[in-house]
Amino acid sequence: MLPIDRTVEGLAGALSLLQRRHEVLVSNVANLETPGYRARELDFGAALKEAFASPERAPTAPTARIDPTAPARADGNSVDLDLQMAKLGQNGGRYTALAKIMGMRLALLRLAPTAQEPENVGPPTSGSTRPSRGPMPSRIRRTSAPICPAGSSALIASGWVA
């Protein structure tokens, strides 16, 4: 895939990690009554930091590890339904927020080529019958500032990493 934008790549990676974490949490809920099943957790923060630390490398699939903080019941199962549902809700909220951010970012990138100053703006040339519209308003002019100056590291700094 050709890189469109470093931020979009980071958002796509974060969405993939959240999707993988959702699968792990759903698996925990599905095994609620399985004797001896140990709840698993995906370390989202470590996986996201690793993905942003080395963008040149192909990302490795994060592995789900047994959650050491979950106490086991008498049958050996360590899945707490309330805790898993809370984690699913939090994970879903993060996914929705990142998907909205990615949609807005892609919309900005789609608008970027059209934000250039048209050729016909300015004083009329000799022989032109159109009235002068003057210079383009400053809010439409293209600037040299990047659309997202913080870049992909903004996800890590903004607290999306647990």
Question: What does this molecule look like?
Answer:
It is built from 4 helices and 2 strands. It is mainly α. The protein has one domain (1-110, 150-162). It has a two-stranded antiparallel ribbon. The radius of gyration is 24 Å and the shape is elongated. The model is unreliable at 139-162 (pLDDT under 50).
Provide a count of the helices. 4
Number of DSSP strands? 2
Order of helices and strands: HEHEHH
Could you tell me the strand content as a percent range? Answer: under 5%
What Rg, in angstroms, do the CA atoms define?
A: 24 Å
The percent of residues in helical segments reads 40-55%
Question: Gap between N and C termini, in Å?
Answer: 29 Å
* Derived structural class: mainly alpha
Number of domains: 1
Mean pLDDT: 74
Give the spatial strand order of the biggest sheet.
1-2
Low-pLDDT parts are: 139-162
Q: Which outline best applies?
A: elongated
- Main beta-sheet annotation: 2 strands, antiparallel
Task: Outline the secondary-structure elements.
Layout: H1 6-30, E1 40-41, H2 44-53, E2 65-66, H3 81-111, H4 153-157
Antiparallel strand pairs: 1-2
Helix pairs in contact: 1-2, 1-3
Kindly list the characteristics that best describe this protein.
162 residues, mainly alpha, two-stranded antiparallel ribbon, elongated, disordered C terminus
